[in-house]
């Protein structure tokens, strides 16, 4: 009689990722799910009523961008971009 051993697959994401990274992931997902419908809604309203929504949309978009860069471990991409576009990055940083 053979013993068949079951291999238990554990997918505990907290062992791979910190709680901050998981929270950032879900916050980013939530913000993106808010941004797309907000953008579509703004297409249908008059320009006079858009200014407040455009500001909210821009701020939320910047937050998503910053969260993606900082917590996405993509900082090396920014450094690479700066080495290729040295003048442009210096004007932003300074």
Task: Describe it.
The protein has 94 residues and is an all-alpha fold. The protein has one domain. Helix content is 73%, strand content 0%. It contains five helices and no strands. The termini are far apart.
Structural topology:
Elements: H1 13-16, H2 19-44, H3 51-71, H4 75-84, H5 86-93
Main beta sheet strand tally, sense and closure: none
| Low-pLDDT regions | none
Average pLDDT number? 74
Structural class: mainly alpha
Strand content: under 5%
Report the count of strand segments.
Answer: 0
> What is the global morphology?
elongated
Radius of gyration over all CA atoms, rounded: 21 Å
Distance between the termini: 74 Å
Provide a count of the helices: 5
Succession of helices and strands:
HHHHH
Q: What's the domain count?
A: 1
The percent of residues in helical segments reads: over 70%
For this entry, give a set of tags.
94 residues; mainly alpha; elongated
Give a quick rundown of the structure.
The chain has 94 residues and is mainly alpha-helical. The protein has one domain (18-93). The chain contains 5 helices and no strands.
């Amino acid at each position: 009689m053979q013993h068949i051993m079951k291999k238990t697959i554990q997918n505990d994401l907290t062992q791979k990722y910190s709680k901050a990274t998981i929270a950032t992931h879900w916050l980013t997902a939530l913000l993106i799910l808010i941004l797309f419908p907000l953008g579509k809604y703004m297409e249908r309203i008059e320009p006079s009523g858009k200014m407040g929504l455009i500001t909210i949309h821009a701020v939320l978009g910047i937050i998503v961008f910053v969260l993606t860069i900082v917590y996405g471990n993509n900082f090396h991409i920014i450094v690479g971009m700066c080495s290729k576009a040295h003048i442009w990055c210096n004007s932003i940083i300074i």
